[in-house]
Fold each of these.
Amino acid sequence: MINRRISRKVKAGNVEIGGDSKITVQSMLNVPAEDVEGNVKQALELQKAGCEIVRLTVPNKEAVKTLYAVKNAVSIPVVADIHFDYKCALESVEAGVDKIRINPGNIGSDDRIKAVADACRLHNIPIRIGVNSGSLEKDLLAKYGHVTPEALCESALRHASLLEKFDFNDIVISIKSSNVQIMTAAYRLIAEKCDYPLHLGVTEAGTHRMGMIKSAAGIGALLLDGIGDTIRVSLTADPVSEIAAGFDILKAVGIKTDCPQIVSCPTCGRTKIDLISLAEQVEQRLQNCHKPIKVAVMGCVVNGPGEAKEADIGVAGGDGCGMLFKHGEILRKVKEDEIVDELLKEIESL
């Protein structure tokens, strides 16, 4: 049982982050900022894939036009990613953005920080502070000698204090590193030091395969500890693939339960059916199923109703056939080429 960390709650558009709100999955557009049509197209693709919050970079005033177009094209919250120009943050607010990602210490004097804080407060827009191991302040690197969880945590709290000074507390914090051990330790540390909602992610995680593994290890470990309020799986890949990856992590740790959980054995010499293909077919055909059930696809009777007795429905392979079972009780034998269809019929009846 996961005991979720108690955090304050903020709201980005129509989506709540933190508190007892659902843990959301988000992504970021990777189309050049000046390409309005391309950004809108990708944002719509992400929304269709289930993305719940979308972010895009706003490096200059021209990019605010792209932000405005994206905001008016999608129904999910839109986040403006700002690095150094506080005026871009102010113009993004005027364009109707739902959330700002900015590190106050990067934008200059107190009057600039106050201007951003006041504008966001006026429009009920939260600010995410995003600390990254690759851009840690020089004085903190000198203090700690290298990137450490403590250095990342101190940096995040320093940025937060600059907003708190102007009575702004609608803050979300992320502390990202490409090193999974540093990332998880940093988040555990910040989770003890503040009650702000936390955006989880392993930055620069890599290509689809390794990036997914590193993200699952880091994000998954923290979620199991009850830490995390929104997640992004950062992949060197099509951003749409990040959404499925994020939801898969939530499924794997037992947080997302409005879908089937598929259990299948790795096969062995006893297996006399093409179980690998069958398991893949079952997974594919259940992609849009929202029943909270456990489905077992097992290679033989040894791993069948016995080891998978907790499954709601399942199949155990025989010699060119399969034995359907429900809650550990055998239903009937079916031919190998009928297994998937017959299994799906039983699932539909549940």
Amino acid sequence: MQMQNSFSNLILGGGDVPKRRRLLYRLAKSAPQVLVEYVKDFSRYLKFSGTLDGTPAENLLARITATYHNIEKGLSLPQPRLGFGKENLTNLILAMQKYQRLYGPTHPILSSAHEVLATYARYHESRNYPDYPCKQEIQKMLAAAPQADVQMGGTRLVQRETIMNAVAPVSEEFFMQRHSVRAFSDREVDIADIEAAVRVAQKSPVVCNRQSGAVHIIADPELIKAALDLQMGARGFSQAVNKLLVVTVDLRNFWQAGERNQGWMDGGMFAMSLIYGLHLRGLGSCCLNWSKTNSQTQAMRELVGLQPWDSIIMLIAVGHIPEEVVVPFSSRKDPLLVTRVIKNWKK
């Protein structure tokens, strides 16, 4: 509210004159810069997302994934409606045919889509509903599809007991003992431990299973130093960083206005799961934010060898935790201050 009043006074001429002048100065100084960055973000999103053209291979695979996952979700409901999903089935089959025509008959994502179609067909046939949507097209696609050695799509039955057995050994203390560590031992970090953490990160929720997150592991000390110099947030401990991770998302997995910020959400959850995966392996980590301009981001892309469609979420410094380490206290807000319970809602 205070910010709104300040802006109103600036525009309408009310309020404290010296304060209004300061606001005008800040607006004149900052607004053009912010606008330029927004325009660059806008241009880059239109160029690489599937908003204008869904034909490039990665854009098309993202569409296939999102569409087959819509059918998967329908099949996982308590009582899927017989004959559901005609529009999604039609769109999925057309997208699969287009990909096969342009890029070849096989791809792991096509295998997943084929299994979803097979699961859909089996569901309806087992319930004596033979006239399900797109039946002929589904049967034709399945007849031509190679047999997968392992399940790639569809649904699976999970027992509550299995989940509870998995979470039973994990307490709140696991999460409370994760700290941002800025002092590491000299012990070498095994790449295999980071790869195990990446497997944990891949279980992060993502929009329609599109899995746009990626990890770039920097193991070269000179490149670690150069990347941290560009990031400018590791002064005082950069020399102790054993491995440096660059977390990115692929813009080609998104489209339309509503998904313009989706990469930051998916990438943020991916990064947090990655950090917990590192914690699970007994590794220390420190998140290094990437709140930078487009020119700074391009410099990091060139330095690390990223693709133009890669958006940088953050950098993560990784190393082994010494026997004792000093960490910031980092006091947290009372949970009641960040929790709101809504009940007895009236329209």
